[in-house]
Design goal:
The complex is a heterodimer. Chain A is α/β, with parallel strands linked by helices. Chain A is built from five helices and 16 strands. Chain B has an eight-stranded parallel β-barrel with strand order 1-4-5-6-7-10-11-12, surrounded by seven helices. The chains are: A alpha/beta, B alpha/beta.
């Protein structure tokens, strides 16, 4: 069973629908025990980091997530889920879970492309990912594949070894980060067509092992 | 770099896709769920649905369409038409839409933008604007006025001022429809599109007037649009989305080209 953590922060239903389409049993849950008893955990999220962390704490799910990480369970963070695993966020100076060392940063403003075009924030729409490392969850992803992003903040791990893929939007920022049995993407897998579904399927078959 | 988005638009009435010219003479052209799936597989970057069902007691038909679309396609889609309250927004978002679009209601009651943005996040709230070119005046300095009721009613609101206000209220995106170009197949309103796009910091989807691929090229370059809405040219198979994208790519526009 795959647990989709419900901390009232976003489009859980679309993740559930995507897993159903792929044929993997899953459950949307707020229950700590449920989370700890599941084989894999997905934590999606949109909205503000502060509220997300507060809701997680309120439900006791922050500890459950940290425990699951320690236990070696396969963990997947999506969008805001890719941010709250760092130590803190510039979004209202929110302390986060700290599963990976580093911060969550706001895009610099004003932001310009290489062609000196003014770039709007949030970064919203389809963009590609440059894969810096191989990862079992990213098998089959091609260099031209694009993914759907909506965000104003991005994850910035302290060490490069946790950066698995980067995306260019005025700056080159980490869009896929990972550490041991945890992998997170800043983009919305569940809204990224077949390449997104491919990653989701890989995750559902991943045993959590990753040689860093 | 971010790709320019190509977005087919489906007008839905009583659960069927329809197409009209300048908001008149609608004819049914297919099942919205099947069409959405078809465009998804053909490489649409997003899909826009407008519910033009006349009576509000048939609103549930649209919710059912949204639910079925969400099970079939895994790209973002938005739903507009007949959304008057935060509860209406919640209904379509829970049914699986990524975004809701509001137009007339936002003019009558601008607070719905901020309420919606607070409840669901700005990224969910699309402001739809129907605009007509007029003589520029003290009241309408940009020379573009917001109209409602399919262009029959002038509101006295300046399009540029309204776009900026909506952004401040929390709109996450603007879908900008030129009533003058809509249905003409003679090209998007480039002056209007670049005016709005360069003066707000949220993405602008250009709408109204696509007849040829060069029109999309023009609005995505000169018109500074972040995305282009298309309807007839794909509904009547004048072009496939793949053809549109390959042509744009060949002319140097960044578009998403792999999806299967």
């Amino acid at each position: 069973m795959i647990a989709i953590i419900d901390y009232e922060a976003g489009n859980l239903k679309s993740v559930e629908r995507a897993l159903k389409k792929l044929g993997f049993p899953c459950r949307i849950t707020q229950d700590k025990e449920d989370v700890l008893n599941s084989d894999r955990i997905i934590f999606p999220g949109v909205g503000a980091a502060g509220k997300a962390i507060a809701d997680l704490r309120h439900l006791g799910l922050d500890k459950a997530l940290m425990q699951a990480f320690e236990n070696g369970k396969s963990l997947l963070g999506i969008c805001l889920g890719a941010q709250i695993i760092l130590e803190k966020s510039e979004e209202n100076n929110t302390p986060c879970l700290g599963l990976i060392e580093g911060d969550v940063k706001l895009f610099p403003s004003p932001l310009f492309s290489e062609e000196k075009e003014h770039l709007k924030i949030p970064h919203m729409g389809w963009n590609s990912v440059r894969l810096l490392k191989r990862h079992p969850v990213l098998e089959g992803i091609r260099p031209h594949d694009e993914f759907y992003f909506v965000h104003s903040y991005y994850p910035m791990p302290a060490s490069n070894k946790h950066v698995i893929g980067t995306t260019n939007y005025g700056i080159e920022f980490p869009s896929i980060i990972g550490h041991k049995n945890l992998i997170s993407m800043q983009f919305h897998l569940e809204k990224s067509g077949n390449p997104g579904l491919r990653i989701l399927r890989n995750f559902c078959e991943w045993n959590g092992y990753y040689a860093e | 770099m971010l790709s320019k988005r190509i977005i087919p638009c489906l007008d839905v009435r009583d659960g069927k896709t329809t197409k009209g010219v300048k908001f008149k003479e609608n004819v049914d052209i297919g099942d919205p769920v099947e069409m959405a799936r078809f465009y998804y597989e053909e490489g649409a970057d997003e899909i826009v649905f407008y519910d033009i069902t006349a009576s509000s007691d048939r609103r549930d038909i649209m919710i059912d369409v949204v639910r079925r679309v969400a099970e079939e396609i895994f790209i973002p889609f938005s739903v507009g038409g007949g959304i008057r309250t935060v509860e209406d927004m919640r209904g379509v978002l829970l049914a699986g839409a990524e975004k809701v679009s509001i137009n007339t209601e936002a003019i009558k009651n601008p607070k719905i933008i901020s309420k919606g943005a607070r409840a669901f996040g700005s990224q969910c709230i699309v402001l739809g604007m129907d605009v007509k070119k007029i003589e520029s005046s003290k009241k309408i300095p940009s020379g573009y006025e917001i109209v409602i009721h399919g262009g029959r009613t002038y509101t006295g609101i300046d399009a540029l001022a309204w776009a900026k206000e909506a952004e401040n209220l929390g709109a996450g995106e603007i879908c900008l429809n030129s009533i003058d170009s809509d249905g003409t197949k003679e090209g998007y309103e480039l002056v209007l599109t670049s005016l709005i796009s360069e003066n707000v910091n949220i993405p602008v989807i250009a709408s109204g007037g696509a007849g040829k691929i060069s029109h999309l090229y023009d609005v995505l370059t000169e018109g500074k649009a972040d995305a282009a809405l298309i309807a007839s040219i794909v509904h009547y198979r004048t072009y496939t989305i793949k053809e549109i994208k390959e042509t744009l790519h060949a002319k140097g526009v960044k578009v998403r080209r792999t999806w299967m």
